[in-house]
From TrEMBL:
It holds the Pfam family CH. It comes from the Eukaryota. The lineage of its organism: Eukaryota, Metazoa, Chordata, Craniata, Vertebrata. The keyword Transmembrane applies. It comes from Gulo gulo (Wolverine). Residues 5-112, 160-264 form the Calponin-homology (CH) domain. SUPFAM superfamilies: Calponin-homology domain, CH-domain (SSF47576). PROSITE patterns: ACTININ_1, ACTININ_2, CH. This is Calmin. It is a single-pass type IV membrane protein.
Length: 288
């Protein structure tokens, strides 16, 4: 229940970030209730994709029209190659919590996480992950399975690959400050990982020595406040969301991806490895 509540809060904030761009702006108050007529879903996809979906929206209290609106949105996602397994219009129209959260997570993953990490994969040098951060990206084919099972397996593999790529980016940014990030769960409880990512963006914003003396709550609050006020990173999380035995991975991934989205140029420093710079410097010195 707590995990569901954290996801609901995080995903609601993420959805509202994009609905602010609508004309006029829209806002979700209760994700499970507000999604049931299809308008919020269509508006969100319209903002994310740049395609016009709301022109097909039919406002009505009758269930058949609500189902039709949602079905059009789901069809758009399927046509966009978003893998939706066991998510149908009726469950969304009924506000089924787990399936609504699953649907929003798939949208976040496809329109933000995979796009951002895809850019990383194309533009950055390979970087091995630390032990425990996941399996390999093997392209071996799956054994013959029913279509639904195979679709689920492919979707899960794509998810893990995107998350591993984001994790590798975080590790490259935080290891210089002595912070070991192994996952998107327990590694973030102390707040040090969030602070290290911020420091990688602007070293003047964070004192890592002071953070070692501060409490978990103080570090988390400091990280979220600095990120919002100084870096304009939307505050999708609260300290209480992370100060649990097992923080929610999807919520942390959604939040951390905002740093990469706002500061993609940060990766540029990795395009010229230090050894190459050193060799170039030596050649210049010899030349002169």
């Amino acid at each position: 229940v707590e995990r569901e509540n954290v996801q609901k809060r995080t995903f609601t904030r993420w959805v509202n970030l994009h609905l602010e761009k609508c004309n006029p702006p829209l806002e979700v108050k209760d994700l499970f209730a507000d999604i049931q007529d299809g308008k919020i879903l269509m508006a969100l996809l319209e903002v994310l994709s740049g395609r016009n979906l709301l022109q097909e929206y039919k406002s009505s209290s009758h269930r058949i029209f609500r189902l039709n609106n949602i079905a059009k949105a789901l069809k758009f996602l399927e046509d966009s190659n978003v893998k939706l397994v066991s998510i149908d219009a009726a469950e969304i129209a009924d506000g089924n919590p787990s399936l609504v959260l699953g649907l929003i997570w798939n949208i976040i993953l496809f329109f933000q996480i995979k796009e951002l990490t895809g850019n990383l994969s194309r533009n950055s040098p390979s970087s091995s992950l630390s032990p425990g951060s996941g399996g390999t990206d093997s392209d071996s084919s799956f054994p013959p399975t029913p279509t639904a099972e195979r679709s689920l397996a492919v979707a899960v593999k794509d998810q893990r690959k995107a998350i591993r790529t984001l994790l590798a980016w975080v590790q490259r940014k935080t290891r210089k400050y002595g912070v070991a990030v192994q996952d998107f769960a327990g590694s973030w409880r102390s707040g040090m990982a969030f602070l290290a990512v911020i420091k990688a963006i602007d070293p003047s914003l964070v004192d890592m020595k002071q953070a070692l003396e501060d409490s978990m709550r103080e570090n988390l609050e400091k990280a979220f406040s600095i990120a919002h006020e100084a870096l304009h990173i939307p505050r999708l999380l609260e300290p209480e969301d992370i100060m649990v035995d097992t923080p929610d991975e999807q919520s942390i991934v959604t939040y951390v991806a905002q740093f990469l989205e706002h500061f993609p140029e940060l990766e540029a420093v990795c395009l010229f490895p230090l050894p190459l710079i050193q060799k170039a410097y030596i050649r210049i010195c010899r030349h002169h």
